[in-house]
Give the backbone structure.
Amino acid sequence: MEKHVLLVFPHPDDEVFASGSAIQWSQQGTPVTYVCATLGEMGRNMGVPAYANRETLPQVRQQELMEACRQIGIDDLRLLGLRDKTLEFEDLDALADRLLAIIQEINPSLIITFYPGYSVHPDHNTCGEIVVRAVQKIPVEGRPPVYCRALVKNAEQVLGKPDITWDVSEVLEQKIEALKAHRTQVIGTKNGLGERLSKQDTESMNWFRFEHFWIYKEAIE
Amino acid sequence: MQSIRKEDVQQALDRLSNQQVYVHLESNQGAYTQGAYPSANKGPFHHTGVFIRNAGIRYSHGKITGDGPFRIGLKMEFGWVYAEGLTDWEQDDQGRILFVGYDLEGRLAVALDLSQQPL
Ligand SMILES: [Zn+2]
């Protein structure tokens, strides 16, 4: 059983990549902390029909994120206050130090993030990189394992089969309800998440059902 | 947000001329065109996008043109601010003027925000 799990993702709704697992941890009494780097300020979906705008979107998405966390059972949400699309231009070492302070405070037994270099969006890749940098600042014997989601299509060709696949069927309904909390982003939208939610076909459901992770080996060795 | 009516927009643009205003200007095709999600993969695509946030400017006059989607040009002492493809707009309770252009799938593709205070 995990002692404390730390999720580190850049955008509200990215937690869908591990939310089934998070629901299960929370049900088992394992505390889950979620560090979310931005509020997805540059998102293009304003709701269908649009009810947010470029300036109100951050507040709307923060409320959505808080509701999603409530449903997942995440009671410790930390917002880093960075701006969507700008992570890669920040001082990454300074960001790693901020994250390190959180890691040292909560002492997680597991960290989950995106696989650096294999997660498509520059914010995703940078987020993973910051996690790895932070963990590498910890003496080897004290480093928590880092599990990464990889989103590129050829992930398996490059990285091999995922090291871990969790079947979250038991909490699938809750996972989907928690995703729907991100209303502007997923209800009626034409993006991947919105289409998967509306289609509800086997392929989409399997995408929600299985959470695949690669262990980031350089972080722990 | 509401559909643009040129006369209303023109009045709003006039209201903010000849004073310091802060601009958010953005052209945005989204970040998932590389095919992170199969449904988003529309084949070879050169992805571009720009934004500038809180640039302080002063324009001597601003004009809205077109029959929809609309274009806006703000003439400055040494240059221009320009946006095209605008469809909807609002003046919010803080006096900010927000313009947006949605693409055919209803997603923001272009945005122009003007504010007397930093955004
Ligand atoms: Zn994301």
